[in-house]
Amino acid sequence: MPLQENRAVFTQETTGLQASGVNLSFGEFRVLDSVSLTLTPGSIHAITGENGAGKSSLAKVIAGLYEPDSASILLNGEELHIRSPREGLALGIALIHQEPLTFPDLTIFENILAGNLPTRRGIVDWASAKERSRELLQQLGSSLDVERVAGDLSIADQQMLELAAALSHDAKVWIFDETTAPLTPKEIQRIFKIMRELRDKGRCIAIVTHHLDEVFDISDEISVLRGGVNVAHLRTAETTQAEVVRHMVGRDIANGAHSGRHVDGEVALRVENLTGADFHDVNFEVRRGEVFGIAGLVGAGRTELAQAIFGVTPWVSGKVELFQQSYKPTNPGQAIGAGVQLVPEDRRGAGLMLERSILENAALTSLSFFANRVGMVSAERERDSIVPVLERLRTALRSPDQHVGELSGGNQQKVVLAKALVEPPRLIIFDEPTRGVDIGAKEDVHKLIIELADSGIAVILISSDLPEVLSLSDRIGVMRRGTIAGVLGQSEATHDSVIALASGGTQS
Amino acid sequence: MKSIGLTALALIGLYFVAPRLFAADSINSILLWLPLILTVALGEFFVVVARGIDISVGSILGCSAMLVGVILRSNAELPLTLAFAAGGVLGLVLGLVNGLLVAAAKLPSLIVTIGTLASFRGLAFLIGKGETITASMVPDRLMQISSRGASLGGVTFTGIALLCTSLTVFAFLFVRFVPFGRAIFAFGGQPEAATRRGISGERVQLFVFTLSGFLAGIAGVIYLSRFGQVQPGAAGSGFELTVIAAVAIAGTKLTGGNGSILKVVLASVIVATLNVALSILGIDTNWQMLVYGIVLLLMVCGDGYRRRAQLGVR
Amino acid sequence: MRRNLTPLLLSLVVLIVGSRISPHFLDFAYLRDSATLLAEIGIIAIAMNFVISAGQIDLSVGSNMVLTACLTAKMLAAGLPPIVCFASGLVIATLLGYLNGVLITFFKAPSFLITVATLAIFRGAAKAMLGPTSVKIPADLIGIDTVTAGGLTVPLLILLMLTVMATFVLNKTVFGRWVIAVGANPRTALFSGVPVERVIRSTFLITGFCCGIASLLLLSRLGVARSDLAMGSELDIITIVVVGGTAIQGGSANVVGSLLAFFLLTLLRTAMGVASVTAEYQMTIIGILLIAVVLAKRVSFQSIVKKFKSSGPKPT
After folding, report:
1. Shared domain check, A113 and A53
2. Domains of chain C by residue range
C-alpha cells in the first residue's frame, strides 16, 4: 500500500486533498489504475510522467471534468463527489488549463468573473465587479485594463485571466495542467512566483508537467505516474532528475549528443527579406542534407513563417527560391507539389482526421500519387506504399484501418509524419515535432530527422525544446519579434547563446 | 450598427418614394406588425447568441394560436390572461422539447428544429382537428387589445404593444443585470471556457430554446388577436425567415456570443416597416419572400465580410 | 451491411405494417410508381451526400428545383426548342447551386445561413415570377415518369445510376476522399494540400446540377410548373441522408444507405397514403423519424465515448 507509506512519510494531517483508488477508463482502455495523490497545504506537488501516463487525466478527475469509474476524494477529511467543474469550483478546486480560453466579445472583468459575478439581491453589481477584478489582477501583478474587450490578448494575458478567475473563487486547491507550455521563460517565472505566493498562503498546489527543469525549479514533492499507476513519490530536495527520469521511463536514457554531421549540399531553400503579417525581413538558407533549426520564444513568428513557406498564409514581400527556382505557393497543395512538406504544430487540429482510419490519414497528402489519370485511387497501391512507411516509423497499431483517434499521442504524431513521407519531399519543415510526445517516440522522431537529412533532404526544425534543437541542428536561426535575430553555427550554438539572441541580448 | 444605419438610410429614402409610409395609419400598421415580429425575434436572439438556431418558431406560433383559438371557441368567457398563459405554456413545453434534444441529447439545433418545424405543424392540425379558427369564434375582447389603446396624434398604442414593450424591457434587464443572462453570452462566446468557469452549457441551451418556445407561444396569441383567424397550415408558416432576418439585421453575431436587445428592437421596426412599405408601394406579397431572402443574404455576407476583414488584418 | 441496418430494418417494419393495411401494398408496380413520385427528392438526396459529408448543408435545394422548373417551363411555353430549354434548365440549376458554394467560401459564412437566404430568394423569385399562376408545358414532353425500361421508370433508373456514380466518386476517387477530408477536419485537409474551398464549391455545384435533373423530371411528371411545388422538401431530403447513415456533422458518407433510406421513405409515404394520413401528418411523422434517428445514433455513440465528449478534446 504505497498510499499508506506516503502518508507516513509526509503528513499525518487530514487537511488538504487526498485522492485514492482513482480508477478511470475510456471504453476498454484503462487510463488510471487505483492512483492516489495527496496534496498538502503549503506544498507544491509536481505530477509528472510520460505522455499517456495519466497525469492530466488524474488532474481532470479531481477537478470534475472526467467522471472516474471509482475514486475516493477527501478534502479536509470530507468525502467529495465532484461531477462537473461547476461543483469543483464551488468546493474551491480550480484547474488551470494548458490553453487558456477567453470570451472574445466580453470585457476583461466579465471574462474574469464569468459564472461568478458579484450580485446584490440577484442583480449584477457591475461597479464591484470591476473593482474586484482590478484587485484580483493586481494580486497577480498584472495591470491589464479591465474594461477593455478581451478580443486578442496574448496567451500569457489570457492565462492571467484564468488565474484571476480561479482566485475569484478563492480556490483552496490549484491544479496547473501543463500551464507553462505556451509561455515564455519570463512568463513562466511570473507564474511560478504566483504559485509560491499561493503556497505560502497555505493553498494546495499541484503542477502537471513533463518539463523536469520546471519540476525541480518549483516543486516540493514529486509524484511520478507511469502507464496509469503511481510509481514513485519523492521529495524534490532528496532526488535527482536522473532518478525521476528513471521512474518515468522505467529505464535509463542517454541524452544523444550532436552527431557532428558535415553538410555541403546545394542550397535547397533561399529566403530573402520575407515579410508577412507576423514576421518581417527574414533571411536564411537551407542546404540539402542540412538540419536548420529555428529557435525562439513562443510568439516570435516561427510557426507563421513556416506556414507562409508552406502556402497556408500569403507573404507580403520578399522572395523565396526553392532549388534555384522562384517559389511562391498560394496554397499548401502547390507547396506539396513542389516537394515541400510541413509537419504542423497542431497535430489534432491541422494534422489529423481523428475519426478516419490511419490509412486514410496517411494517404491524404499523396492521393494523386495512388490515382490513375481519371482520379481513381488504387486501394492496393495506397496500402502497399503506406504500410511500409508506418512500419519504418515503428508505429504501434492494431490495423491500418483503425481510427487514428484511438492511438496514443506519440503514435498519432507518427501518422502525421507518415503523411509527409509517403512521397519523399525535397524540403521538410517540422514544427514542434515532439511536443506532447512520450520519450520513446521522441527518440524515434530524432532518429528520423537525422536519417532524412542524411538522405539529402533539406530539413527545417522548429522547436521550443532547446536541447532538441541544439542536438539535432547543423545551424540554428534564432527568431525574435518576427525576424531572424541571428544564425548560429554548430560551434557557436549553446543554451546561453540561443537564449541571449531569442530574448534580446539580456543574458541571465 | 453599420447594418442598422444603412437600413435606416434606406427607410429615409423610402420616405421620398412613399411619404404615405409615415402617415398615422401606416405607423399603426407598423405597430401591428412590430409586436408579432419582435416577440419572436427576442427568443430567436437568445438562441443565436447561444450558438444555436431555432427554425421551429413559426410552427410553435401556429400551435399556440390554434390552441388558444380552440379554447376560446368553446369558452368565450375565459380571462385573457389565461389565454396568454395557455399559449405561453404550450410554447414553453414545445421549446423545452427542442431544448432537451439540443442540450441533453447534444443534437445540432438546425436538424432538431427542422424536425420539430414539421412535427409541430402537424400538432397544429391535431389541436384543431384540421379545422380553421375564424373571426366569429374569437371574442372581441381579444381582438380589441390589438386595435384599441392610448391614442396620440392618430397613432394608437395598443395593449399588445404594451405587452411586447414589457417583454422587451424584461429581456433587456435580464441581459444587463442577471448573472444567468450574462452566462448566455459567455457560453455563446466560448462554450468551453464557460464550462471551465462553472457555467453549465446544458442549462444555457435548455433555457434559450425554452424561452424561444415560450415567446413564440405568446406570439401565437398575439397572432390570434391581430388576425382573428388561424389556419393550421398557414399560421406562422415561414415566419422563421422574417425573425432570423430581424436578428441578422440587428447585427447579432451569427456565430454566437454577441448582440444587443436594443438593436433587435430597431431591426424589428425595420422589418415591420419593410412589410408595410411593400404593401404601400403596391408590391405584391409574392415578392416578400424574395425581399427577405435578399436582406438576409446581405446581412449574412456582411457578417462574413467583416470577419474576413478581421482575419486579413491579423 | 451492418451500417445499412437502420434503413433496412425500418423498411421491413413498414413493409409488414403496410401489407397488413392494404393487400396492394406489396404490388411491385404500385411500389414502383410510388417511388417514382419521390424520385426527384431521392436524386437530390443522393447529391446532398456530397454537401453533407463535406461538413456543409444546402437548405435551398427544393427552392432551386422549383425555380429551375418555373424558368424552364416559361422557356418551353415561349416556344423555345425543348433541348435548349432543358440544357438551360440544367445550367441554371447548376449555377444556382454553385452560387451557394461561392458565397459560402468567399464570405466564410456558415452554409446553413447562406442557404436559408437563398432558399427564400429562389422560392421568392419563383413566386414573384409566377404568383399563383401555373405554366403548362407542351403535352408531348409530359410523362417521362410513365416510360419504363427493364421494369423500372426513367426517374428511378436515373436515381439508381446517380447512386452508383456517387458511390464510386465518394469512395474510389481522389475528389471523393477530398470531400470526406474536408468534412472530417477542414484545417487538416488544407494542410494536406486539399483545395478545400474548391472542394466545397464543387459539392454545391454537384447538388445544383442534380436539382436541375430533378426539376426536369418534376416538370415532365406534372406537366406544369407552379411556385408552391415541393414546399418543405428539404425535410425529406435531409431525412433520407441522415437515416441513410451519412454523418450530419460531415466526414463520412453512405450513398447506398441513402438509397435504402429513400425506399424506406417511399414505403412510409405509401403506407401513410394507403392509411389516408393527410400530408401534414405525413410531414409530422417524417420530422419525428428524422429526430428519432439522429437521437438514436447519438445515444449509441454517447454510450461509447461518453467520457471523451464530456471532457473536451485534449486528453494528453
Report:
1. no
2. 2-297
Phi-psi region of A299 (alpha: psi -120 to 50; beta: other; left: phi over 0): left
Residue type, C254: N
Name the domain boundary from A422, A454, A475. Answer: A422
Residue A330: inside a domain: yes
The reply to whether residue C235 touches residue B241, judged by beta carbons under 8 angstroms, is: no
**Same domain membership, residue A57 and residue A176:** yes
Say how many domains are in chain B: 1
- Asked which of A249, A278, A310 is the last residue of a domain, the reply is A249
Q: Which residues of C touch A (CB under 8 A)?
A: 172-175, 177-178, 180-181, 184-185, 187-195, 251-252, 304-305, 307-308, 310-316
- Coil, helix or strand at residue B79: coil
8 Å CB contact between A289 and A453: yes
Q: What percent of chain C has pLDDT over 90?
A: 67
Nearest-CB residue to C287 (from B119, B290, B307): B119
Supply A108's cell numbers: 476583461
CATH architecture of structural domain C2-297? Orthogonal Bundle (1.10)
**Nearest alpha carbon to residue A173 among A69, A99, A50, A78:** A78
Instruction: Report yes or no: B119 and C295 within 8 Å, Cβ to Cβ.
Output: no
Question: What tens digit of pLDDT does each residue of A95-137 get?
Answer: 998 778 889 889 999 999 998 899 988 899 999 999 999 999 9
The shortest CB-CB distance from A365 to any of C180, C192, C310 is to C192
Distance CA B298, CA B300 (A): 6
C-alpha cell at C262: 429513400
Is the CB of A67 less than 8 angstroms away from the CB of C310?
Answer: yes
- Give the lowest-confidence range in A34-38, B1-5, B123-127, B163-167: B1-5
Q: How many residues does chain C have?
A: 316
Number of structural domains found in chain A: 4
Nearest residue of C to residue B124 by CA position? C280
Residues A469/A296, Cβ–Cβ less than 8 Å: no
A-C C-beta contacts closer than 8 Å: 110
- Please, what is the average pLDDT of chain B? 88
- The type of residue at A466 is L
Provide the ipTM: 0.86
Cβ–Cβ gap A364/C177 under 8 Å = yes
Tell me the residue range of the domain where A440 lies: 265-339+425-508
User: What CATH number is given to the structural domain containing A24?
Assistant: 3.40.50.300
